[in-house]
């Protein structure tokens, strides 16, 4: 159901509309600018370096054999695994994913490979691709609001909230597939609603294309397809209407198209389980609830990693407000409207929630899986505020809710400006930038780390090309510090590895450490200077 018809006075004096749209345009421009600046400034976080690995065509097994062999290498040599390789080609990208990360279909990684071959493999070039996908999402959100609510003003407000939502800015500047996937799923949702209202082969062809591309971007497309199917069954019943027939053909075509990759994923399910094992690590219900609160507030504001615990407290009023907004949406819109967004919310989040509650783990804490939930929330609160700002007969627009809307948008804008101009991202790489300057103070440094392959692959990007790296070969007990280096750094060494170093009559001294009690996150850097020890030339 669209918003209530405006009064005669409001129709003749649409100044409130112009004011809201003007404010939204300003906020949208801020959000667009934040997506496009400083793309090359922030360190790559771990998942981004995996995108680089897949786009290069090398497999993780090849990198382990060539770089994690206990021999000294340089950052420049190591970075060949993070640029497109002509030898490996696109087939290397597909083969690496199929063998080592079958839960990730190849479309985005192939697009990244092509993009880097055209524009280079700098951070700015690589991250500009998801930024473009994020910008293309703006008009699709507006289109979805028109199809769902027939209210252009709601579309403007929803775009404004999307523009300064920190979670979407973070994904827009992250070399991962989630911006593309969000764009494709919104196109699919808008075309579904258009196909229901005005069935045509052209519209349903677009739907098929969006869902196929969506499946080859992320397998979570299946949850969206389930939401769409439930929505149609709810309002079409089991009558075999033309709309239901179109949807069944579309869903069948999409599932047939992705079936080769599903077959690969099924055959390599042991690998998929192993690489996603982090989601099943035990987490208490209290920590789970706090993580949900922080994820919810990340849609409206973000702070430095050290102060993230404050989000748990801010999530309480935000949750209460959102509950009221959802009730308002349910009460003042038709079932065909509210059920669409609530089904999209439910099928996106509830499977992860139920799995965590029954089986344990933190699947529901990965907010990047729930971007459609954030979009749904943006549309719901956009409807809420536009209805509250709409002048009723004999009443002025609510100043209270106008102030709340300004406060939320301002918080998002400040967070996004701070994030875009900052050197790091919230919760991803705050402390990576503090260690390289320490290493770069000396000539010909050697950095040694026994971090896991996944973590080590990330931090090498922060150092100058001539910095030497060494990843010990297992078992660590056989490790010996190589000759020929006077300045040696131990990056985040484990207690066991540090003990092995100390047994070699060396005296590592701590030069940097950070520890956060609330998250158990720790990071350290030790330094060994061998000025007074004889240096044996390397053979």
How many strands, what sense, and barrel or not for the largest sheet?
6 strands, mixed
What topology, given as strand order, has the largest sheet? 1-3-2-4-6-5
Strand content: 5-15%
Q: What does the radius of gyration come to?
A: 26 Å
Number of strands: 6
Please describe what this structure looks like.
With 539 residues, the protein is mainly alpha-helical. 61% of the residues lie in helices and 6% in strands. It contains 23 helices and six strands. It has a six-stranded mixed sheet with strand order 1-3-2-4-6-5. Helix 11 runs antiparallel to helix 12 (201-215) and helix 13 runs antiparallel to helix 14 (242-267). The longest helix has 27 residues, at 123-149. The radius of gyration is 26 Å and the shape is globular.
């Amino acid at each position: 159901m669209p918003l209530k018809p405006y009064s005669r006075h409001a129709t003749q004096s649409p100044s409130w509309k112009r004011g809201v749209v003007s404010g939204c345009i300003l906020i949208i421009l801020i959000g667009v600018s934040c997506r496009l600046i400083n793309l090359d400034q922030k360190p790559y976080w771990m998942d981004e370096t995996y995108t680089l690995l897949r786009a290069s065509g090398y497999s993780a097994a090849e990198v382990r054999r060539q770089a994690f062999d206990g021999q000294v290498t340089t950052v420049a040599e190591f970075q060949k695994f993070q640029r497109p390789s002509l030898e490996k080609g696109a087939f290397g990208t597909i083969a690496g994913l199929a063998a080592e990360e079958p839960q990730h279909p190849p479309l985005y990684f192939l697009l990244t490979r092509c993009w880097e071959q055209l524009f280079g493999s700098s951070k700015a070039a690589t991250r500009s691709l998801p930024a473009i996908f994020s910008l293309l999402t703006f008009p699709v959100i507006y289109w979805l609001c028109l199809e769902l609510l027939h209210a252009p003003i709601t579309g403007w407000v929803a775009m404004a909230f999307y523009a300064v939502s920190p979670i979407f800015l973070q994904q827009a500047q992250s070399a991962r597939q989630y911006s593309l996937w969000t764009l494709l799923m919104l196109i699919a949702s808008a075309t579904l609603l258009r196909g229901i209202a005005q069935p045509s082969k052209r519209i349903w062809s677009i739907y098929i294309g969006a869902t196929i591309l969506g499946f080859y971007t992320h397998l979570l497309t299946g949850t969206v397809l389930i939401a769409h199917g439930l929505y149609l069954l709810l309002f079409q019943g089991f009558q075999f209407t033309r709309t239901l027939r179109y949807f069944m053909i579309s869903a069948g075509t999409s599932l047939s198209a992705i079936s080769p990759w599903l077959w690969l994923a099924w055959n390599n399910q042991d690998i998929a389980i192993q690489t996603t094992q982090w989601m099943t690590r035990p987490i208490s219900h209290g920590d789970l609830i706090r993580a949900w609160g922080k994820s919810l507030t990340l849609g409206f504001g973000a702070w430095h990693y050290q102060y993230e615990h404050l989000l748990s407290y801010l999530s309480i009023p935000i949750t209460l407000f959102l509950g009221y907004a959802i009730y308002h949406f349910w009460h003042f819109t038709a079932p065909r409207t509210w059920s669409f967004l609530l089904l999209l919310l439910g099928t996106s989040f509830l499977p992860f929630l139920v799995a965590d509650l029954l089986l344990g783990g933190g699947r529901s804490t990965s907010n990047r899986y729930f971007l459609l939930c954030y979009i749904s929330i943006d549309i719901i609160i956009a409807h809420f505020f536009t209805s509250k700002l709409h002048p009723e007969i004999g009443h002025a627009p609510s100043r209270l809710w106008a102030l709340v809307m300004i406060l939320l948008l301002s918080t998002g804008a400040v967070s996004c400006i701070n994030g875009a101009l900052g050197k790091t991202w919230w919760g991803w790489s705050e402390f990576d930038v503090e260690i390289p300057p320490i290493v770069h103070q000396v000539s010909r440094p050697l950095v040694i780390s026994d971090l896991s392959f996944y973590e080590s692959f990330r931090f090498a990007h922060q150092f100058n090309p001539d910095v030497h790296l060494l990843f010990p070969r297992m078992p660590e007990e056989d490790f010996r510090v190589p000759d020929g280096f006077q300045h040696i750094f131990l990056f985040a060494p484990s207690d066991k590895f540090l003990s092995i170093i100390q047994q070699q009559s060396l005296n590592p001294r701590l030069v940097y450490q950070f520890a956060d009690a609330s998250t158990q996150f720790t990071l350290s850097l030790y330094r060994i200077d061998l000025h007074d020890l004889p240096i044996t030339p390397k053979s």
